Amino acid sequence: MKSLTPEMFEPKLASLDEAEKISRPILTYFQDAAVRFLRNKVGVFCLGFLTVITLVGIVGPLFFPQMGEDMAYENAINTDFQNQRPSLGDYLLVTDDSWSPPDALIKPNFNTAAGLLAPEKVFAPQNFKIASAATVNGVTLQWEPLEGVTGYEIFRIAGKKESLDLESFRTSPGSVGMTLGKIEDPAQYTFTDSSGLDPSEHYAYAIVSYVTYPDSGETTFSTTASVLNTALVKTIKISDAKHLKANAETGDTIRGRAFLFGTDSLGRDIFARMVMGTRVNFSLALIVPSICLLLGLIYGAISGLSGGKVDLIMMRVIEVLDTLPYLLLMIIMQLVMGKGVLSLIIAMCAFGWTGFARVIRGEVLRLREIEFVHASRLLGAPLSRLIFKQIAPNLIGLILVVWSSRLPGVIVSEAFLSLLGLGLEAPAASWGMVLNEAAQQFQSHPVQFLLPASVMATALLAFFLLGDALTDTLDPKLRGRD
Amino acid sequence: MVLFRYIMRRMVLAIATIFTLATLTFFLTRIAPGDPFTKTKEIPAETMANLRAKYGLDQHIMVQYGIQMKQIFFHFDFGTSFRTIGRDVNTIIEEQFPVSAKLGVFAVALGTIIGMGLGIIAALYRNSVIDRFAMLLCVLGLALPGFLFSYLFQYFIAVVPVTQFNMNPDTWVPAVGWGTWKHYLLPGISLSLGVVATITRMTRSQMVDVQFSDYVKTAKAKGVSTARLVVVHELRNAILPILTILGPLLVGTMMGALITENIFGIPGLGRVILNAVVNSDYNVIMGVTIFEGAFLVLIILATDILYGIIDPRIRVSA
Predict the structure, then answer these.
(1) Would you say the CATH fold of A119-236 matches that of A47-62+267-478?
(2) Is the pLDDT of residue A104 over 50?
(3) What is the distance of C-alpha A323 from the center of its chain?
(4) Domain ranges of chain A
(5) β-strand partners of A234
(6) Which of A64-73, A146-155, B9-18, B97-106 has the lowest mean pLDDT?
């Protein structure tokens, strides 16, 4: 415990200057609000997160490859890339626009006169390998042709790399794998497999040789096979490759597009569509509440300032409008006006302003009894001046709170209408449109829905928490509580 | 006398609301591009004229308006569907409404029970883990739309266990359909999350407010047990505002269930609206909108009147 000394009991000198001294910097309302807001970690984080999304929406599309012929990149349909999983961009082999399997090659100067091999001497061809690249278009196999055999038979198995049982495939290829083809010319030394190749699988091939003895008609196969296994290289057509790399040539390997969210059923990049959709959704989220606010401000201020019968009737009108089933009316309005951003704005604004009008009327009723408004009115200020010069500036905190609480609702409404097929005109991209398209095949390709949905959910949560934070900092009713 | 005047005023307002709604939907559907018959296959001009005459579409718009209003307000008749020949809107509503209503009541009842329980516990143990959890649930339920939960629940609870973990699809929760009690679970829970969030938040704030009132302090000082304190003294006073939002919450949940009904293949009004939207069947849309609007208005009216009877402060200020 601190020991008590006599000095501690000396009376302090009373100084008027000291008592009245303003020791902290003078803060305006907004500086004060900013200080309070910055103390709210969740709010700051949400604001930062939403700023990042907004920036991605503004800047992101500039990094998309350009598509010619008035086709926006995010709407470009690419049938080669349907329902791709999310990836950072695979390496793609550039091929000609029209691919056809190469002709089988025959070895020149092949000694066809050699006698047939004895049954116990029949063995599998050596040097079994991939002729060039194994691509999704086709895998060309090559081997050393054998003298003294009648032909070869080729088998294939497919699966995950670890699950391929190469040893049993080598000893009994016919029972493990599927037969790809029987080659009846012993001089042929290449074969191209182009049937149903799937880039996500691993493939193993086996080749055996056989001898058919003309006198007995019996056929003897080599007891073991030559086996190889390979993954497939994805390909891209040269005309598509030119969009990615202008100087691409057939045979080059280029890095394909990164499909961060995968592609949809039409092969469109879902991430690109989400980025473009951000523009639509965030514009809506900013425009709709602002229009509602303007309408509500005018209506509420007139109602509040007029008072009496006018106020009564105007409030009854709002009560009537508030009880209408706005979701259904929004659907009807969308039907009437057709799809599009403008009709979305009108449909959402038509019934969204009443809440603003209510809040603003209440605040106006309080404010209009304050002296400076009386003074302004006494000096002959018109109603418009009263509204915009006297009342509105004092409403800003409250307005911002109500305004920010409306932002997530707009995004939900857009998704709601789009899921009903009443959003934008296809193929335009918005978050709701992406969700709607992904929802059609949710069961088979859940990733296409889950990734965009989590983006939307995160944004909604951020908007909601930001609104809460703004309420804490700006709502005058809460000021001075903490 | 004051109560009577209050009730009369609410009723006049309710009728005005329904009338406004009917007028609004009528004129909105009439200015829609094309009429209901242009979207089907080519119809000869003569047939078209007959069809239009049959449905009264050839008359002056104000005459049509008058006829329709008379039908709606004096005969409670919403007309016939333009698409499904011979089906009138009343029958459609009679058949499908109970399904939506059952689902809505289930979701709201479930949400209210859970929400009130969670709200009370959160208020009793403020800033505890349970309180934090309840607040997290509130943020999720309020910020995210019900249809998002519907999609997720259907996939992760109904589909994945069957396809990935070999659950028996006959005994596990069904992914789609309607009929048994199991069909209520997933759509009901996904719709109830919003209700849980609303009710939890309200209960908690009401309970916290009540906790500091003098009569609770007095009761505590007299040594009333915690259980009795919560149930008899606190909850009774906190519950009134919650009761008043249940009606509008029910209607809101039912109308918001549009997409959820579609996801789970539930034959309710949601699907009716969806089909009507696809086919531009304006009579059905108008009928359902007016019906649901009237339902909402009546529920709010009933709530207001009941509240006016229970709480005399309301009728004086209104």
Answers:
(1) no
(2) yes
(3) 36
(4) 47-62+267-478, 119-236
(5) A92
(6) A64-73
In this complex, which of A321, A327, A338 lies closest to B255 when CB atoms are compared? A327
Contacts of B154 in chain A (CB under 8 A): 442
The answer to whether residue B122 scores a pLDDT higher than 80 is yes
A46: chain B residues, CB-CB within 8 Å: none
Structure tokens at B286: 């108008």
Question: Would you call A331 and B29 a contact, using CB atoms and an 8 Å cutoff?
Answer: no
**Could you give the C-alpha distances from B298 to A157, B15, B74, B251, B273, in angstroms and in order?**
69, 9, 17, 10, 21
B277:A421 CB<8 A: yes
Q: Which residues contact B198 (CB under 8 A, 6 or more apart)?
A: B111, B115, B141, B142, B245, B249
Q: Is A446 on the interface with B (CB under 8 A)?
A: yes
Q: Flag whether residue B136 sits within 8 Å of chain A, measured between CB atoms.
A: no
A47-62+267-478: what CATH class? mainly alpha
- CATH code of domain A119-236: 2.60.40.10
Q: Percent of chain B having pLDDT more than 70?
A: 89
C-alpha radius of gyration, chain A, whole number: 37
Report pLDDT digits (tens) over A197-211.
777 778 888 888 888
- Candidates A49, A50, A321, A324: best to mutate against B (most CBs of B within 10 A) is A324
**What is the complex's ipTM, to 2 decimals?**
0.85
pLDDT digits (tens, 9 = 90+) for A339-396: 888 989 998 898 889 888 988 888 888 887 888 888 888 898 887 887 777 777 777 8
CB A94 within 8 A of CB A238: yes
Domains of chain B: 89-278 (1.10.3720.10)
Please identify among residues 200-259 of chain B the ones whose CB lies closer than 8 Å to any CB of chain A.
251, 255-256, 258-259
What's the whole-model pTM score? 0.79
